[in-house]
Every structure is written in structure tokens, then in C-alpha cells.
Amino acid sequence: MNGDTFHLRKSTSTLSTRSHCISYKKHKGSVKGVRLKNKEMKDENRITGMEKRAGWLSNAFFMRLTARDVFGVVKYHPLPCIFAASLLFFMGVEYTLRMVPSSSPPFDLGFVATRTLHRLLESKPALNTVLAGLNTVFVGMQMVYIVWVFLIEGRPRATIAALFMFTCRGILGYVTQLPLPEDFLGSGADFPVGNVSFFLFYSGHVAASMIASLDMKRVQRWKLSYLFDTLNVLQAIRLLSTRGHYTIDLAVGVGAGILFDSLAGKYEENRKKELLTDGLDGGAFHNSKMHENGEYISVSSD
Questions:
Q1: Does residue 36 belong to any structural domain of this protein?
Q2: Is residue 106 part of a domain?
Q3: Of 41, 121, 164, 173, which sits most exposed with the smallest number of CB within 10 A?
Q4: Annotated catalytic residue: which of 118, 190, 215, 245?
Q5: Which residues contact residue 232 at a Cβ distance below 8 angstroms, ignoring those fewer than 6 apart?
Q6: Domain range holding 35?
Q7: 274 and 227: one domain?
Q8: Whether 245 is catalytic
Q9: Which pTM value belongs to this model?
Q10: Which residue stretches of the chain are H helix?
Q11: pLDDT beneath 50, residues of the chain
Q12: Which is the catalytic residue, given 118, 205, 215, 261?
């Protein structure tokens, strides 16, 4: 009996101790939880106070950036970072570079780079005429291709782009007329044929070639497009060597070709949507067969 009583007391004592420990742990945990909650409230109040002091900047994007985000931009977006560095560099150049005097001809780095070729063509007029003739043939190839894809294949995008491009070139070339370089090497075989006056800004030679090349790439005529790109580079070198264009004319010509090709594509797409919405036939363009990549390849309809 006493043994049973002792065992019962011992068990009761053990249970009481365990219960006390559990109660203590719970109390300790609740105190710890209260402390954490108080700390979180203090942090929230501190952040809220900072946001109030920041005012309208509290919701700005840069306020949420961390060091990891900043280094992530450098790691995952190197090209914009290079552009940002070049911006700072050319800002320094712009503020320190001495302007070309109004009595001097324009400075063109492309002219400097092609000085040797210029002297060669200047000393050999026959070679200059041959190269001018070959360049005119290339211009003819561009025109034939652009008209061909419209009239034969029923794809008007390149033609629309060329019309946009030459119209804009005429406007810009007229409103800002650049002086022809003093050492320009003209030729009767050059385009415009007959060595007549022409607009310098921007290069229609380069832009039209870009439009044709982009159209070739769309229909996967890769070899022909690479040929046109190569001839376009050679054409640009010749135009710099003869001083028929400034470097900026050629650079903008590349951009103009890409821009007007894109605009022509958007125009074509919008017109298709409008015609479909209005339930109209749309003529030859709308009834044309479609290439597997979405471009028109024929004006006939089945």
C-alpha cells in the first residue's frame, strides 16, 4: 500500500514537474513571440516613418532597389550598362571637344579612314568610273527586286517601305541641304546617272539595300540577303571614298531601311485588320496566297 502510495506520489510529482516545464516553455515562447511582435511593430513604424519623411518618393522604384538588384543589372543586362558608360564618356567628349570652325569643311572620320582609297580613285578616273558603274548596277538590282516582289510575288511590304523611305529622304534632304564635299569624285556612270545634284541626307543607296535585304530574310532567301549585305558594305566604302556621302548619311540610311520596313509592316497589318473587320475584299493583297511564314507569295487566289 505504501509502495503504491509512494509510486503514485512520484508519478504525480513527475507529472507536476513536466507540466511546470511545459508551462514555462509556453510562457517563454509567448514572451519571445511578444518580443518578436514588438520588434516587428517597431520596424514597421520605423519604415512608415521613413516613408512619411520620403513623401512622394516612398513609392518610387529606386527606393525598393537593393545591392543585389544593382549588381544583377550589371550581370544580366550588360548592354544597357555599356550604353550608360558610353553616355557618360560622350558627355565628357561633347563638353571638351573643340567645334569645327565655320570656315572649315565638316570633319568626317569616315573620310579620314578612306583617305588612301580616295587618293587612289582620284589618281585613276577610269577605276572610279568602273566602280561607279558597278554601284549603279547594284542600285538597279535593289529596284528590280523591290518592284519584283510586289508585281510578281504579290508582297507589297518592300515597295511600301521604299516609297515611305524615299519620301522622307526627299523632305529631310530639302529642309536641311548639306554642302557637297570639296573633294567629291563624281562620275557620269554614278547614280543618279549623269552626275546631277542629289540629296546627301540620308543615303537612299544604303536604305533601299537594307529594305531589300530584310525582305529576303523574311522569305528565307539567306544567300541572296547576305550578298546584298556584303555589296551594301562595299557600296558604303565606295561612297565614303568618293565623298559622295558623309558617314552620318550612311549610318542613318541603315536605320532608315529598318525603320521604314517596320512601318510598312505595321501599315500592312493594320490595313488587313481593317479590311477583315469591315468585311471587304481588299483586292489583290488580301486575296493573295500566303507563304508559310505569313508573307504573301502570289496575287492569285484559289
A1: yes
A2: no
A3: 41
A4: 245
A5: 206, 209, 210, 213
A6: 2-61
A7: yes
A8: yes
A9: 0.69
A10: 2-54, 67-76, 78-96, 109-113, 115-123, 125-151, 157-175, 204-218, 222-241, 247-278, 283-287
A11: 5-12, 15, 24, 287, 289-302
A12: 205
